[in-house]
């Protein structure tokens, strides 16, 4: 089964440290955690006040706790047999939210609903699929998503090269 701790260090290399880019719709982030996500979860998951100062001081273990609870566990990462498939779905979920799940569900096809919610039916369909073929199609689908997003919203064009670098970091074949 997949292991969150094996991918988390790589995720942090993508996410970096504290930034507040006015062009980024996510606003202020640290280690990839947006202020909005931090404010909604800091008290319950970390036991700290949900302030900008605490986001700026976010430690690696705190970031790991947030990523595990809010992203990895929501895709049932520990139950996914393929480490690489779990990593690519998790990474895209961190970066694009429910779009990561709807892409997966579209690739898995009917009778699975493309509702953006990762539940037991999605997990079963994922586990029953040809893992290598699904991985390759998912990787390409992610590249297509970013390209189409930048075309539809020219203001986001400045982020496309970074998104594609991140998507193509994953090997073409599982």
UniProtKB/TrEMBL annotation:
Parts forming coiled coils: none
Entries under InterPro entries matching the protein: Lysozyme-like_dom_sf (IPR023346), Peptidoglycan-bd_3 (IPR018537), TtsA-like_GH18_dom (IPR008565)
SUPFAM superfamilies noted in UniProt: Lysozyme-like
The chain positions of domain Peptidoglycan binding read 99-168
Superkingdom is Bacteria
Query: What is the protein's name according to its record?
Result: N-acetylmuramidase
The opening ranks of the lineage are:
Bacteria, Pseudomonadati, Pseudomonadota, Gammaproteobacteria, Lysobacterales
According to the entry, every stretch annotated as the TtsA-like Glycoside hydrolase family domain falls at 10-97
> What is the organism of origin for this protein?
Lysobacter enzymogenes
